[in-house]
Amino acid sequence: MVNNLAMAQQMGYMDVPDGVIVPWESLAGLPMEKTVIIMTGAQGEPTSALSRVANHDHRDITLAEGDTIVFSASPIPGNEGLINKTIDNLLRQGTRVLHAKNATVHVHGHASQEELKLMLRMIKPRFFVPIHGEYRHLVAHAGIAFKMGMPEDHIFVMEDGDILELNDQEAAVVDRIPAGHIFVLGRRLWDPSNSVFKDRQSLGRDGVIVVALALDTITGDLKGTPTVTTHGFEAPEDHEEIMDLACQRLKEVLGQQQWDQDQPENALKQRTSDVLGKFLRDKTGRRPVVLVVISPV
User: Fold this and answer.
1) 266 with 186: CB under 8 angstroms?
2) 284 by DSSP, 3-state: which?
């Protein structure tokens, strides 16, 4: 923000009289009723200055009852929840909050149709590719270009991944490459379709249960009662009772057959997961991730 302001002044877009913009360090000595602080956070960004002020987490700014906060931008679709949370936190501190819904304070950052037409008339492009916005906005922008006389086959409404090949005479969408979100974990890039994300969602939603089994490697019989440890999973008030019943259910079902060396270890693990998962789903309506640890004895 500081760099953008300095650039605007250097290029003549903003003519600010001397003494209006003052160093941050002099803020404490200024009369509050004559001070305006411009800060980031109009979209409710969690790490922005305004969000930190709203959360009592800014090291330099503390609000006082009666302060006025102005949101000069309308919410970008998808940011409404963050913005509403920020406004609520500001109001809890006794401030007055003005925004596009209750005051005429919105400053539009996008060109109007007439301004877009002006750009088309001035530039006279040979080919036209509307960018920025949802797909419906791109289509609307393409429609303006068409009405301004551009040939339809010179207008390209593209999506992420489309490859546009063009030269001085012609242009065409020739191919498409994979495009979308890429997740970074440690030093590795992960595809969103990777099963690890499904597992993490399940862990976050329902928790995990670790089952420990003792298996006699000679007879193939289970020894003792299975033990169950939960992480992030809590049954209702009778949690301990349900866990005890789960252990007994596992002992009853798994003890009906011998698990000798002819049966792979994965079969026992899968059977344990199926039995415990169904039992907990019937009792609690949830099905946590089940991890099985087999200790040979």
Assistant:
1) no
2) helix
Domains identified in the chain, total number: 3
Residues 68 and 155 in one domain: no
Residue ranges in 210-264 assigned as alpha helix (H): 239-254
Cβ–Cβ < 8 Å for 74, 106: yes
Q: Tell me which residue of 40, 32, 35 sits closest to 4, measured CA to CA.
A: 40
In a domain, 191, yes or no: no
Domain that includes residue 90, residue range: 2-98
SS3 string of 115-142? HHHHHHHHHCCCCECCCCCCHHHHHHHH
Cβ–Cβ contacts within 10 Å for residue 103, how many? 13
* Residue 211 · residue 289 · CB < 8 Å: no
- Listed residue (118, 184, 117, 181) closest to 147, CA to CA: 117
Q: Which of 123, 144, 176 is the last residue of a domain?
A: 176
- Alpha helices, DSSP H, located in 148-235: 195-206
Q: Which residues of 77-90 are buried (b: 16+ CB within 10 A; e: fewer)?
A: eebeebbeebbebb
Residue 59 lies inside a defined structural domain of this protein: yes
Phi-psi region of 252 (alpha: psi -120 to 50; beta: other; left: phi over 0): alpha
Percentage above 70 pLDDT, the chain: 97
- Number of H-type helices and E-type strands within the chain: 8, 9
β-pair type (171-176, 183-185): unpaired
Is 184 inside a domain boundary? no
Closest by CA to 72, choosing from 24, 105, 116, is 105
d(CA 265, CA 292): 10
| pTM of this structure | 0.54
Tell me the per-residue pLDDT of 99-110, one tens digit each, with 9 for 90 and over: 988 998 887 778
Q: 19: Cβ–Cβ under 8 A, 6 or more apart, which residues?
A: none
What does the pLDDT look like over 225-239, one tens digit per residue?
Answer: 888 888 888 766 788
- Does one domain contain both 247 and 270? yes
